[in-house]
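INFO  loader      accepted 1 record
INFO  loader      residues=234
INFO  predictor   begin
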Amino acid sequence: MREVDLGSNLVEFYTKPIRGRLFVVGDLHGCYTLLMNKLEELEFNFQQDLLVSVGDLVDRGQENLECLSLINEPWFKAIRGNHEQMCIEATFDNEMKEMHAYHGGDWLYKLPTVQQQIVVEQCLNLPIILEIHHNNKVYGFVHADIHINDWDNFKQEVLKNNYFIEGEQSAMQIALWHRGRVRFSTYNPIYKTVTGVDEIYFGHTVVKEPVKHQNCFFIDTGAVFGGPLTILEL
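INFO  predictor   done
INFO  writer      dumping tokens
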């Protein structure tokens, strides 16, 4: 595989002061109106509170550009999901473009070319990992999975930026695509509490209700498929 640009902002530490509350939301998938209605119910303070998205802002839903516009809001912070990754990879891989379109990404290819490029740039700028220190706790945010039981080691592996490593899945691929911990954690002893972080929040795998495995929380409750949109206060 030739060298391609998969972004340089892979691990981000949020350093701005959070004057209000910290929330995390599951996969939005173009459900902008649903999100805004939910925030109104929660009496979200747009001047003081912060909302973190665990990725997959786009695809399958109808309000994809509206969800992407949230990236520019000071009260919102997002990480990259596998659907943002598909937007990126489709620029150099026709098979990925076909797969992306099949899984709800066809809206992107109906846009003018210049606008498509803007979307890809937005996706490239999203980090794979986000870390936030708030109220004396360390919170981590990753889209799909973590296979290493050490937070600092996982961050270092992602920083290798070797998404297309030969013969094995890279930490970047695990972070964006994998489902091992949420599916097999109850009986696979390789999954233990992740040290170096208090809590980690994930989306990607649809669950009926938020589920906890060790100190890892999976919160994609399938809003775009008719399930509830999960927003948790941390």
